[in-house]
């Protein structure tokens, strides 16, 4: 369902799709960005004035951090084992971060090209604490496309 003109959306929930496997319990996504180098072209104009022109350069690879509550699902651990043991042919995957509205309808997809897990961090384990245990997965990717 497309949004009306000039309307903003609230990200109600998020999901990570990797090779047709969907993980929907993502609670936070940070660091998601598209970036490219800037090339400065320095030249003198025909009338002798010094000018700097900025041109787009190569796209930069990026990193995104996903946070979810700790569950029995071990898909993050299995994925990071592939990269830790050098099995990059199975660790590099195409995937997408999906933003859902309050009705569970996907409203935006951020496709990650050649993504692989860089690190997995479990929140602090503290006896008697009542906060939710989380795991943070940092994914590095070579390129991102927006649908």
Number of helices: 2
Gyration radius (Cα, Å) is: 20 Å
**Low-confidence blocks of residues:** none
Helix and strand element order = EEEEEHHEEEE
N- to C-terminal distance: 13 Å
Q: Could you tell me the strand content as a percent range? A: over 45%
Largest sheet: 6 strands, antiparallel, barrel
Q: Roughly what percent helix?
A: under 10%
On the 0 to 100 scale, the average pLDDT is 88
- Strands ordered across the widest β-sheet: 1-2-5-8-7-6
What structural category characterises the helix and strand content? mainly beta
Number of strands: 9
Which shape, going by the Cα principal axes?
A: elongated
Can you walk me through this structure?
The protein is mainly beta. It has 2 helices and 9 strands, in the order βββββααββββ. The strands form 2 sheets. A 6-stranded antiparallel barrel has the order 1-2-5-8-7-6. The protein has a two-stranded antiparallel sheet with strand order 3-4. Strand 1 (13-18) and strand 2 form a beta hairpin. The two termini are 13 Å apart.
Structure keywords:
147 residues; two-stranded antiparallel sheet; 10% helix; elongated
Summary of the model, kept short:
The chain is elongated. The protein contains two helices and nine strands, in the order βββββααββββ. The protein has 147 residues and is mostly beta strands.
Q: How are the SSEs ordered, and which strands pair?
A:
Blueprint: E1 13-18, E2 21-30, E3 36-44, E4 50-59, E5 62-69, H1 75-84, H2 88-91, E6 93-100, E7 106-122, E8 134-141, E9 143-146
């Amino acid at each position: 369902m497309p949004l009306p003109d000039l309307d903003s959306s609230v990200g109600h929930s998020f999901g990570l799709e990797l090779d047709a496997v969907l993980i929907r319990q993502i609670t936070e996504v940070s660091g998601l960005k598209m970036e490219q180098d800037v090339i400065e072209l320095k030249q003198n104009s025909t009338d002798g004035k010094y000018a700097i022109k900025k041109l787009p350069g190569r796209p930069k690879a990026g990193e995104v951090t996903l946070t979810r509550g700790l569950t029995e699902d071990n898909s993050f651990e299995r994925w990071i084992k592939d990269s830790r043991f050098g099995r990059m042919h199975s660790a590099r995957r195409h995937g997408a971060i999906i933003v859902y509205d309050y009705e569970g309808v996907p409203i935006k997809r951020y496709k990650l090209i050649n993504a692989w897990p860089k690190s997995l961090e479990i929140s602090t384990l503290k006896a008697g604490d009542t906060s939710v245990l989380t795991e943070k997965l940092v994914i590095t990717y070579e390129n991102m496309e927006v649908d």
